[in-house]
Design a protein that fits this description.
CATH topology: Glycosyltransferase
Helix content: 40-55%
Shape: globular
Structural class: mainly alpha
CATH class: Mainly Alpha
Strand order of the largest sheet: 3-4-5-8
Largest sheet: 4 strands, antiparallel
Order of helices and strands: HEHHEHHHEEHHHHEHHEEEHHHEEH
Strand content: 5-15%
Number of helices: 16
Distance between the termini: 19 Å
CATH architecture: Alpha/alpha barrel
Number of domains: 1
Number of strands: 10
């Protein structure tokens, strides 16, 4: 990339963040996702921090305005009505201070709060002090309600952020979506249906939403009745990393972080319960059936991001990256369940690449980290700021002008990324 091109790409990325800004929060992209999504906003804050640290803190603080009394931070906040999205707040029936969904999402906010803080500690201390107790309460909610043998579980495919990954196929097959009724999807009016989850998936998504609403999102009742409970690499590794980052932030503020340190130890032990010896990889585990998913996914490679340098994962990573031009695919291309364009059943995601790459670098796999950063940068430069990409051809897929892809460019792949951003 020439120096002449760099400002153009940087400015395009900044323009996407500004264009998706709705006043205190960003939408992932107009039309397809018209509300505030949880982990999308954390990435947005990272992107904003490269040119506007104050705006980055506003993004995270706005997300935390939706926190429920039990500490949960929902995966969607419906700040303004928008009939172009389904299921909306009337379907979810969230019980928080802002109309919301009833589930959470990968807790990456503390980790990106740390990155924002590191860019400008002096300008960040007051905002950090305000959000620290909220982040701590959210993490504790996971520890209280989502653990199985120390690994973090999801109670809905949307909770992991990897909606239709093959990791959930076994658990989804155990759901009979009786009584779901008629509904009209909106996502397939914005994006080619071949790039989205199927009706089979959606019936089960909505059935689980209706179950949660019927139980008034009572965690104890859901623990008893929800047939979908899967110990997930995404959640386990991101929460472990987030707890490490929150502890570092707490120490910077002079807070007592002893309880966070205990949680880190529990999650470290839990992560090892996700090692599937037959697959020789970290894998999802269906808590209800006890069966492995049998999937090498991009979430499997978040172990380095969590600070776990398992020697077996390097061989898996090298195998996967050798069989597609634009890694890291969301599902193993050698699998018969791989689909290069259907959402989380194959496509490459810039956000996951960033987390994997940061972890590789921190664990000393610097050549692999730099190669992934370079490939991801080329992917965005050549194919645009898409939601995700075909790992075989690089072609853009899903939504366009996407907030978190712009943030990944600014925070991780751009040659002008600020010191402290990676």
């Amino acid at each position: 990339m020439t120096n002449q091109m760099t400002p153009t790409m940087d400015e395009q990325a900044r323009a996407i963040l500004r264009g998706n800004d709705r006043g205190g929060y960003t939408v992932p992209t107009a039309g397809l996702y018209p509300y505030q999504w949880n982990w999308d906003s954390a990435f947005a804050a990272w992107g904003f921090a490269t040119f506007d640290v104050a705006r980055a803190w506003v993004e995270i603080e706005t997300l935390l305005t939706g926190q429920w009394d039990n500490g949960m931070v929902p995966h969607i906040l419906f700040h303004r009505p928008d009939p172009g999205y389904f299921p909306g707040p009337d379907v979810w029936g969230g019980v928080g201070p802002v109309p919301s969904s009833g589930i959470s999402q990968p807790p990456v906010a503390a980790s990106f709060a740390r990155r924002v803080y590191d860019i400008d500690p002096d300008a960040s201390r007051e905002a950090l002090a305000r959000i620290f107790p909220r982040l701590k309460a959210w993490h504790q909610w996971f520890m209280d309600w989502r653990l199985d043998q120390g690994a973090v579980c999801i109670t809905h495919p949307w909770e992991a952020g990897r909606d239709n990954t093959p990791d959930w196929d076994g658990a989804m097959a155990g759901i009979d979506p009786v009584g779901v009724g008629d509904y009209t999807r909106r996502d397939t009016s914005h994006v080619d249906p071949a790039m989205r989850p199927t009706k089979y998936d959606y019936d089960r998504y909505i059935w689980l939403v209706q179950l949660g609403r019927r139980l008034n999102w009572d965690e104890a009742a859901l623990l008893e009745e929800n047939p979908f409970r899967v110990a997930d690499p995404t959640m386990t590794f991101t929460l472990l990393r987030a707890q490490r980052d929150l502890a570092a932030l707490g120490r910077a503020l002079g807070e007592d972080v002893s309880s966070i340190d205990v949680a880190i130890q529990e999650l470290e032990a839990g992560a090892e319960t996700l090692w599937n010896p037959d697959l020789a990889c970290y894998d999802a585990r269906d808590v209800r059936s006890g069966k492995w998913a049998g999937c090498v996914s991009n979430a499997s490679f978040l172990n380095w991001y969590a600070g776990i340098d398992h020697p077996g994962m390097v061989a898996q990573y090298d195998r996967i990256t050798s069989i597609c031009k634009y890694p890291v695919p969301s599902h193993d291309p050698s699998s018969d369940r791989f689909d290069a364009k259907r959402y989380w059943r194959g496509p490459t995601w810039g956000i996951m690449n960033a987390l994997i790459g940061l972890g590789l670098e921190e664990c000393g796999h610097t050549d692999r980290a730099e190669a992934l950063r370079k490939t991801t940068g080329e992917l965005i430069r050549d194919h645009g700021f898409a939601e995700y990409f075909d790992p075989l051809t690089g072609h853009a897929a899903g939504g366009g002008t996407f907030t978190w892809t712009a943030a990944v460019w600014l925070g991780w792949t751009s040659p002008t990324r600020p010191k402290g951003a990676s």
